[in-house]
Design goal:
The complex is a heterodimer of chains A (about 475) and B (about 170).
Chain A (H helix, E strand, L loop, with lengths): L7 E5 L5 H10 L3 E7 L5 E7 L2 E7 L5 E3 L9 H11 L2 E3 L27 E5 L11 E7 L2 E8 L7 H5 L4 H11 L4 H14 L4 E2 L1 H30 L2 H22 L12 E2 L5 H27 L1 H7 L7 H7 L3 H6 L30 H22 L7 E4 L8 E6 L4 E9 L2 E8 L1 H13 L7 H8 L4 H4 L1
Chain B lengths: L7 H17 L9 E7 L5 H9 L11 E3 L8 E5 L7 H9 L6 E5 L1 H4 L22 E3 L6 H19 L5
Parallel strand pairs in B: 1-2, 1-3, 3-4, 4-5
Helix pairs in contact in B: 2-5
Classes of the chains: A alpha+beta (about 475), B alpha/beta (about 170).
The complex binds iron/sulfur cluster.
């Protein structure tokens, strides 16, 4: 398997050409990846085509750029975040509500919704169970949700700010800390972004090791998520059964790497993972058993009539809306958006990758649980394939730094994660992480519109987005 | 009859569950009833995953009389994860002040203990201890479900021993 040429293009444009240039690239078939503000106080937009990327950069003049949300709906949160962090205005994005900032007055961030009997239900930041912190404001009539405003960033730890001036290894550790559930994805993303800025070519050992770790991360997450949806349904059998499978998957992680969440397994420029043939064979059999039992269990649980009645038609995200909002990952695929960063090739080990798809991508809770069940099978097959040989330490060959930022795209358990690293000799000048969860939160809010309030926990679980890697 | 009875999936599950529960090797301990209110004060979610597992079918913390409650009003213990971000500080203090006395605070995970923090110091208080009196400490990043169960049980035992009135 050859390493694809990673096309990198860098376009510096004046502020008056910003919108036009990006609109042209999108019209030419590129996908919006992320927006960030770089160390030189420019605003930059990354667009992708396969594994290739184009970066458009511009200096806001004066303090303002034209909004691109009319051509890239997925950029709405990115523009709000840049506005909060830097004060840059995005003309045409009205109103530009705060996202990261937490103004004291409710009216300063909540969407005004009015009419007969409309009232608000405020939930969080502390939730009822063992759940991450964040605030939701539902605008409802009776039980019907008219609109959902999200206020996250309660867990903001300033990880990107701390990465400015850090060594690449520290930057990868900071990204790992952003979120335990996406620890491997986030740290591989930062490692690859740094390597890509240095025309890095990973050898086969590095590609296999990283792919193995990424898929092990997906495996325990998908098992967790199906269990969580079963809890949302109120089906104790399913939630207990998948909790047990998740535990076994995490014990495989611990045996392989010494850590149940695979922490500290990713290095920039190399891989230390060393698994001999007999350990590989032993773990391979355990993963195969987990996959087989998950399939058996899902065949039981998923066919149950009362389960089906509960999950069908709940929280529908239609395909057009999913596309407009940039939904990705299992949530996007459940709505018929066939976006999977693993299919782009890239610098990993996915020979002949074909993603799981649904015959009927109905965009409801049922579709989001079904796609995960199918992906577990595919995921175990990839792990078993890698583990059919020993995994050895490897290296990434790096050359001198190229101009402009390094960008990596990976498929996390939640969707497409993009990391941007601005290299500055031996350290990095800037880090930006836009995770699959970040991409999907607006889609979750859209899926709740028209649903009933008691369905929210179930719909929320069916997306199972991280707060931690959004808040950073 | 539900579709899954009589199919092999559930039996496979139950067999494994029985084996895994035996393998955790936790002693049963004295019966008690303690309600825990968990607050995520800025964790990476690893501590939540493991706390969830501690309450799950294998470690089953409920068998020792410990359970999670939805309201701080019903809680005996405030169990905090994360480095206490400046944005979670007030919510955490409100939850604590809503609890009836006697109450205890437990810090779960290295972040909550203020160890090995990563991030921008301006965004974090840095440890639970800095703003609340911590009685039980559970170190680890994240602590495993087994460690969480052991530390909570041992910590409660210690607190209880310290509060037993000497009999004369
Ligand atoms: S202690 Fe470790 S696992 Fe727990 S919140 Fe902190 S970084 Fe995450």
């Amino acid at each position: 398997m050859t390493v694809p040429d990673q096309q990198r293009e860098l376009l510096d444009v004046s502020a008056d050409r910003w919108h036009e240039r990006i609109a042209d690239l999108l019209a030419g078939g590129m996908r919006f990846l992320t927006l960030w503000s770089d160390p030189a106080e420019r605003v930059a937009c990354a667009l992708g085509s396969g594994y290739g990327t184009t970066v458009v950069r511009s200096t806001p003049a004066p303090g303002e750029l034209q909004s691109i949300v009319d051509v890239a709906g997925a950029a709405a949160w990115d523009e709000r975040e840049i506005h909060d962090r830097t004060g840059v205005q995005f003309a045409g994005h009205v109103p530009l509500r705060p996202l990261v900032a937490h103004p004291a007055a409710t009216a300063d961030w909540v969407t005004p919704v009015s009419g007969d009997d409309v009232h608000q239900v405020a939930v969080g930041p502390i939730h009822a169970g063992v759940v991450e912190s964040g605030h939701f404001r539902f605008h409802v009539v009776g039980e019907r949700i008219l609109h959902l405003d999200l206020r996250l960033f309660y867990k903001h730890r300033g990880l990107e700010a701390a990465a400015a001036g850090a060594t690449p290894d520290l930057a990868a550790r900071l990204a790992q800390r952003a979120c335990a559930a996406c620890a491997v994805t986030n740290s591989v993303a930062v490692a690859q972004a740094y390597e890509s800025a240095h025309a890095g070519v990973p050898d086969a050992a590095v590609r296999r090791a990283r792919t193995l770790l990424l898929e092990l991360e997906r495996l325990y997450n998908h098992l967790n998520d199906i269990g969580a949806i079963c809890s949302g349904i109120g089906l104790a059998t399913g939630s207990m059964a998948f909790a047990e499978l998740k535990e076994r998957a995490q014990r495989v992680n611990a045996e392989l790497t010494g850590h149940r969440f695979l922490f500290d397994t990713i290095a920039v420029g190399s891989s230390d993972l060393d698994i001999d043939a007999s350990t590989a064979a032993h773990l391979r059999a355990r993963v195969a058993a987990i996959g087989a039992e998950a399939a058996l269990l899902w065949a039981d649980v998923g066919a149950n009539r009362s389960v089906r009645a509960r999950i069908r038609g709940a929280g529908i995200l239609v395909r057009d809306e999913a596309l407009r909002l940039g939904a990705c990952g299992p949530a996007g695929r459940a709505s018929g958006v066939n976006d999977d960063a693993r299919a782009d090739g890239g610098l990993l080990w996915y020979p002949g990758f074909v993603g799981a798809t649904l015959n009927d991508p109905s965009g409801d809770v049922a579709a989001r649980i079904e796609i995960r069940a199918r992906e577990i099978t595919a995921c175990c097959a990839i792990i078993e394939d890698v583990l059919s040989d020993p995994v050895r330490p490897g290296r990434v060959t790096l050359s001198g730094p190229a101009a402009g930022p390094g960008i990596a795209q990976l498929e996390s358990p939640r969707g497409r994660t993009v990391a941007v690293v601005e290299p500055d000799r031996a350290v990095i000048a800037g880090l930006h992480l836009r995770t699959g969860s970040y991409a999907n939160w607006p889609a979750l809010a859209a899926a709740c519109t028209g649903a009933i309030l008691p369905d929210f926990p179930l719909i929320n679980k069916s997306f199972e987005l991280c707060y931690a890697c959004v808040d950073r | 009859m539900p579709a899954w009875t009589g199919r092999p999936g559930v039996f496979v599950l139950l067999r494994h569950l029985a084996a895994l529960r035996r393998s955790t090797d936790l002693a049963r301990g004295a019966p008690r009833s303690v309600a825990i209110r968990h607050v995520d004060a800025g964790s990476c979610n690893g501590c939540e995953h493991e706390l969830g597992a501690t309450l799950g079918p294998i470690y089953d913390l409920q068998r020792f009389g410990l359970s999670i409650t939805a309201s701080p009003r019903h809680a005996d213990i405030l169990l905090v994860t994360g480095p206490v971000t400046t944005r979670m500080r007030d919510a955490l203090l409100v939850a604590y002040s809503a609890m009836p006395e006697p109450r205890l605070v437990a810090a779960l995970g290295n972040c909550a203990l203020g160890c090995g923090l990563l991030g921008d110091p301006a965004e974090m208080i840095g440890s639970v201890e800095a703003i609340l009196p911590v009685a039980v400490r559970v170190p680890g990043c994240p602590p495993t479900p087994d460690e969480i169960a052991r530390h909570l049980l041992a910590g409660l035992e210690e607190v209880r021993a310290a509060h037993v009135r000497p009999t004369s």
